Amino acid sequence: MTQNDTIITKVERLEESLKETLHKVEVIKRKLETKLLSAESRERLENELYEIKKVLGRNEKELQSLRKENAKSFMITVCLVFVCFLFYGIYLMIFGNV
Fold first, then answer.
1. Which residue range(s) make up the domain with 10?
2. Membrane-spanning residues where (predicted)?
């Protein structure tokens, strides 16, 4: 991700990454349900599943923080719009005929 990416772009990329990771988890779980795996293969898949779940947890936390940041940006925008309308209303009351 570059410095110029918006929060929305980052959220979209992270959500896509989460979808891919969840798909990988499902595939590995289905493979682990197979009884034809050797102990070595099963252990390798379990380790891979563990690592993927760690990445998944990290990405979910990052997604939550980006959504909080997005909510803050939205609230600032709403406040600025409200202040602009307030000043416009005061201006009309003082200088204009409503």
1. 1-36
2. 74-94
